[in-house]
Amino acid sequence: MGGKKSKPVALLHTRARLLDGSPVILRALSRADRANLISGFEELSPHSTYMRFLGYKANLSESELDHLTHQDPAEHLSIGIEFAGRGEHKGIGVARYQRDEGSEPITAEFGVVVADRYHGLGGATLLLKQLCREARRNGICCLRGEVLETNLPMLKVLENFNPRFEPGSDEDTLVAFIPLQGERE
Prior knowledge:
This protein is α+β, with helices and mostly antiparallel strands and 185 residues long. Helices cover 26% and strands 29% of the residues. It has one domain: Aminopeptidase. The protein has helices at 34-43, 46-53, 62-69, 123-137, 152-159, and strands at 13-17, 23-28, 76-83, 91-99, 107-114, 142-148, 164-167, 173-179. It has an 8-stranded mixed sheet, sandwiched between helices. It is globular and about 45 Å long.
């Protein structure tokens, strides 16, 4: 890897507010989040699962859970967003990036998912903003993610990040490229 040192994951703990004013915390996931990830995935509707994974998926595999809960910010990072009011710490969603091996300039693939009942409250935008900050902090120049052309809510979220789009791997997908150079903290 390059000479840039990654920020310790333990320091990632940011407070924010959803569009309805609810206080939330964005933080790096840890091994302690495995059970919450499993139950959160089970709460996703088949439609949301299809939109996020570009196909139907019954559950998260053990290797996916390991990957989501083991952080190495120079290579991959998973961020969760949860309510932070009155002792309530209910998860809302997750965003993650995975560095593209050998890419120059350094790019990383990203993904975002928000629980169905919290759609439209700005959680995906908060997650993606934090993910961009952390990726840039860790030397990544561009995030890229594949999205279905019919996933209008995610396309609307992406508009906030000045993406460039290219055709995706299937005729009904697009690849969004989010530039991170020159952005402010």
